[in-house]
Amino acid sequence: MNLPSTLQQLGWQAFFQQQLNLQEFEHCVIARVIANHRSGYELATEQGLRSIAIHPALPQMVIGDWLLLDDHGRFVRLLSRKSLFKRKAAGSQLAEQLIAANVDTLLIVCSLNHDFNLSRIERYLALAHDSGAEPLLVLTKKDLCPDAERLQQRVQQLDPLLVVAAVNALDSDSCDELRHWYKAGSTLAVVGSSGVGKSTLVNTLTGNTEQKTAAIRDDDSKGRHTTTARSMHFTEDGTVLIDTPGMRELQLTECDDGIRRTFSDIDELATQCRFSDCQHKAEPGCAVRQAIDEGTLDARRLTNFQKLNAEQARNTASLQERRAGERQFSKMVKAVVSTKARRK
Ligand SMILES: Nc1nc2c(ncn2[C@@H]2O[C@H](COP(=O)(O)OP(=O)(O)O)[C@@H](O)[C@H]2O)c(=O)[nH]1
Ligand SMILES: [Mg+2]
Ligand SMILES: [Zn+2]
User: Fold this and answer.
1) Hey, which end of the chain has fewer CB within 10 Å, N or C?
2) Mean pLDDT of the region 293-309
3) Does residue 225 carry a pLDDT above 50?
4) Structural domain boundaries of the chain?
C-alpha cells in the first residue's frame, strides 16, 4: 500500500489529539516521522511527504514520533510520546539510542531454532516493559522446530500473563493469531536479532511479498541506504508496522522499572528475604535462593536478573555522569559569553 492519506491510517490517536490547542489545531500540520536519516527526518502528513533537516535546536526524534509543523513546513514542537523503545548506544558510546516511538504493541521476535535464548528474551522484555508499549512474544520458524510446544511453554513460564505465539512467519494462516493486535490506528513494531524473521513477519502481516514495499528506509551510520534499517509499513485496514534491524548489542540503561516488572517473581520473593537489602548471594534467610533450592525458581533467571541489574546500574551511572559534565560545560560557556558581553 502507498502512503496513507488520513491521519488515522498513519496511527493518529486521541492521546496525541488531546495535546493540541485550538490555535495549533487550526494552523499546524500534523506529521509523523517515518524515517530518520543523519541529515534529517522524513515525515508523512495528510498532505503528503515532508522532510526537515537536522538542526541543533531540534529535539532528538525517531521513527514513530508525532510533531507539528507550521504552514511553512517548519518545526513547531514534538508531541509527548505514548511509548519510547530505546537502548544504550552500541560500543563504548555513552548515549541512548532511540529505536522507535509511539508503539502500542511491541512484537519481540525470536526464532525457535538457533536463536532461542530465554535470557535474551528477558532482556527484551525489560526494555519493552520500560518503553511503555505492550510486549508480545512471537516465536518464529515453528515449521523448523520439532519441539516448538515445549519451548513455547518455557517462554510462557517467564510470565504467565505474557502472550506467546509460535508461528511460521512465511505462512499467513499461521500468523492469524497476531491479527488480534491489529486495530485501525494502532502501531506495532518488531524487534529481535537478525535473521529471526522480523521482515518476513511484517511482509506476511501487511500482505506484501516484497520488502521493497517498505516505502522509506533510513540510512545506516555511514549514510548509505540499507535493507537493514528501520522502516514503516501500512496495512489496508489502518495498522502501522515498524520493522527494525537486528540489534547485536542490546544494553540496558535507566531500565530499573522494566527489570523489576520482568522479574516480578524475584521482586516478590525478595520481600521475604531476612535482610531488606539482600543480594540473594549467600545471605542467610534468602527466600530467593530458597526458591531455587526448592526448584520453583530457575537459577538461570536469578543470574540473568543480577546481570541485567548490574549492567543497568553501570550504564545509568556513566550516562548521568556524562550529562552532569555536559551541564557544567554549558554553564561555563554561558558564563564566558556573558562576561564577554558585559565587557563590550
Ligand atoms: N521456515 C521458516 N523460515 C523463516 C521463517 N521466518 C523467517 N524465515 C526465513 O528466515 C530468513 C530471515 O528472515 P528475515 O525476515 O529477513 O529476518 P530478519 O532479519 O529478522 O528481518 C529468511 O530467509 C526467511 O525466509 C519461518 O517462520 N519459517
Ligand atoms: Mg529484516
Ligand atoms: Zn535474598
Assistant:
1) C
2) 96
3) no
4) 7-78, 84-243, 256-338
> What mean pLDDT comes out for the span 55-73?
94
- Which residue has the CA at smallest separation from atom 6 of ligand 1? 197
Q: What is the pTM of this model?
A: 0.87
Closest residue by Cα to atom 1, ligand 1, is: 141
CATH homologous superfamily of 84-243: P-loop containing nucleotide triphosphate hydrolases (3.40.50.300)
φ, ψ dihedrals at 209, nearest 5°: -105, -10
Which residue's CA is minimally distant from atom 14 of ligand 1?
197
Range of lowest pLDDT (37-51, 221-235, 273-287): 221-235
How far is the centre of ligand 3, averaged over its atoms, from the C-alpha of 266 (Å)? 9
Å from CA of 162 to ligand 2 middle: 24
Mean pLDDT value across the chain: 88
For domain 7-78, give its CATH number from 3.40.190.10, 2.40.50.140, 3.20.70.20, 3.40.50.2000: 2.40.50.140
| pLDDT band at residue 253 under the 50/70/90 scheme | confident
Q: Which residues line ligand 1 (CB under 6 A)?
A: 140-141, 143-144, 168-170, 194-200, 246
Looking at the CA of 191, which ligand is closest? 1
Mutate-to-test residue for ligand 1 from 107, 200, 208, highest number of ligand atoms within 8 A of CB: 200
